[in-house]
Specification:
The protein has 13 helices and eight strands. By secondary structure, the chain is of the alpha/beta class. It holds the Pfam family PEP_mutase.
Length: 290
């Protein structure tokens, strides 16, 4: 199967598909090594890795180039986070084929205004576009894809914006009608109650997508048992793990005035070389260098 077909089959068969966030090819390879089903090409993580806010500061070209690099580094399906689609339905029509050509197997697009504000910031500017406008963007994405197995996921931020369950359900149903293959519903409540209420009320035919960043007590077994969720995305754990690890190591080096203490628990250089694909390069050298 192609990577597109792998993701599509998981959705059709109702098997929970797990995706770990990545902000570069190395983090994507580590996610594949750990056994995740796919990669979440996170806009938040990419912004954080550039030390800029997750507010459409980075250009589409920057994001697209990283998605291409990630797709080339792993064999897993890549779900690209394209925020609000970098514009209106016309922009979406042009960019979806570019993400598909770059190796993505899906895009996720959210119904906020451009430029967006991150969903994770308290007191953020959470402004939603009209339902009809976003339906047009979803339909444009569906029409623009080259492979029918390429997945278009519509994300509603109605709960994030404080507009309630009724509005979230209304938007989700409208986006399904526009052709979305799945609906991502997002919440930043510290318990899963809000999400569970939405799932219970959902009567759509397409699966849901969850990002349980704010409510980590909801496990994969819990999510699978709900019967309506097709994908669970761990949206920012790669960058948080990287920051935690670097802070620990950097602080210890400064505290001890050297690297002797940290060397005992850091990966060996040989491990990094392996992740870089050094063995494959050596094989090429042996076969072709004259």
């Amino acid at each position: 199967m192609t990577r597109h077909q792998t993701l599509r089959r998981a959705l059709v068969e109702g098997r929970l598909f797990t995706a770990m966030a990545a902000h570069n090819p190395l983090s994507a390879r580590l996610a594949e090594e750990a056994g995740f089903d796919g990669i979440w090409g996170s806009g938040f993580e990419l912004s954080a890795s550039h030390a800029v806010p997750d507010a459409n500061i980075l250009s589409m070209d920057t994001h697209l180039a990283m998605m291409r690099a990630i797709a080339a580094a792993t064999g897993l399906p890549l779900i690209a986070d394209i925020d609000t689609g970098f514009g209106n339905a016309v922009n979406v029509s042009y960019i979806v084929p570019q993400y598909e050509a770059a190796g993505a197997s899906a895009v996720v697009m959210e119904d906020k205004t451009f430029p967006k504000d991150t969903s994770l910031r308290d007191g953020g500017r959470q402004e939603l576009v009209r339902i009809e406008e976003f339906q047009g963007k979803v339909a444009a994405a569906v029409c623009a894809r080259q492979d029918r197995d390429f997945v278009v996921i519509a994300r509603t931020e109605a709960l994030i914006a404080g507009q309630g369950q009724t509005e979230a359900l209304r938007r989700a149903q409208a986006y399904e009608e526009a052709g979305a293959d799945a609906i991502l519903v997002h919440s930043k409540q510290k318990t899963p109650d809000e999400i569970l209420s939405f799932i219970d009320a959902w009567r759509g035919a397409v699966p849901l997508v969850l990002v349980p960043t704010a409510y980590p007590q909801l496990t994969e077994a819990d999510i699978a048992a709900l019967g309506k969720v097709g994908i669970v995305i761990y949206g920012n754990h790669a960058i948080r793990a990287a920051v935690a690890g670097m802070r620990r190591v950097f602080a210890q080096i400064r505290r001890e005035g050297g690297i002797r203490g940290v060397d005992a628990y850091l990966p060996a250089v040989a491990d990094i070389l392996a992740l870089q694909g050094d063995a494959a390069m050596r094989d090429i050298e042996a076969r072709f260098l004259r």
